[in-house]
Structure formats: structure tokens, C-alpha cells
Amino acid sequence: MATYKTLTVLDAVKAGTELNATVTPLMVGADTQEADGFSFANDGNVVLLVQDDPSTGAGDDILFTGINDPYGRPEADLTRTITLKKMYVYGPFLPLIWNQADGTIKVKFTTHAATTTLIAIRVANPT
């Protein structure tokens, strides 16, 4: 059976959500992934923020697992390179072609270094 570490999704608000020490536990190292990677709940408003440490980062590759759409057409897995010492935002992800049967996105790092960190953030609908 596949094993994934579940990421807690942070709800961002219109007034702003500060990423500070109290949020740090939600930002996890890629080295903490389970054998098959990470998973996070997705409602179509979630983005993944990935940062390679600005002083000691070495870069990595990240793979998002695609699924078949409702018509049986396969969505290819998506692999992206995380350039050393950079920050990236991935998403939002259309649930129809990215959500697994359990409503989550599956993602895995190739080298899963401790210097690469990530957090899932749900962006609120405009008000």
C-alpha cells in the first residue's frame, strides 16, 4: 500500500496570512516525505509553495501525479525542477485532472533534501 505524508492546508484570508514562527510547523522539509511522497486536500483553490533554502539549498525535482479525466484520457505526471535557492508556487490544481479518488493531490520529491521546504495554502475566493 502506498504511504504519503499528509500536509495540513493553511487557509489564506483576504486581510493577509503571515508566514511566521507560528506557521513554521506547517512548512515541512522534503526530507520528511513518506515512501511515496506527500498528499494534500485540494478543492481547486490550493497552491503549493516550495522553497529551496536561500543559503544552503541544492535544488530538487518535484513530481505531481496525474490521473485519467472523466472521459478516460490520461493526464501525464508533471515533473518540475526546483532550481537551487529559489521559491516556487505551483497550482491551483483543477480537481478534475489532479485529484486522486480521495480528493487529494499526490506529490513527490526526487532527492527530498532537508533544505527544500513546502506548504499547501488554500486561497480564499474573492469577496
Oligomeric state, counting identical vs distinct chains = single chain
Extended strand count: 10
What integer value in Å does the Rg equal?
15 Å
Stretches where pLDDT falls below 50 for ≥5 residues?
Answer: none
The helical percent reads under 10%
End-to-end separation in angstroms reads: 42 Å
Structural class: mainly beta
Question: What is the tally of helical segments?
Answer: 1
Spell the H/E element sequence: EEEEEEEEHEE
Q: Strand percentage, roughly?
A: 35-45%
Strand order of the largest sheet: 1-4-9-6-7
Q: What spatial form do the alpha-carbon principal axes imply?
A: globular
Largest pleated sheet = 5 strands, mixed
Q: What's the structural domain tally? A: 1
Mean pLDDT: 86
Report what the structure shows.
By secondary structure, the protein is mainly beta. The protein has one domain. It contains 1 helix and 10 strands, in the order ββββββββαββ. It has one helix at residues 95-98, and strands at 5-6, 9-11, 28-29, 38-41, 46-52, 60-64, 78-82, 87-90, 104-109, 116-122. The strands form 2 sheets. Strands 1-4-9-6-7 form a 5-stranded mixed beta sheet, with no helix packed on it. Strands 2, 3, 5, 8 and 10 form a 5-stranded mixed beta sheet that branches. The longest helix has 4 residues, at 95-98. The protein is globular, with a radius of gyration of 15 Å. The mean pLDDT is 86.
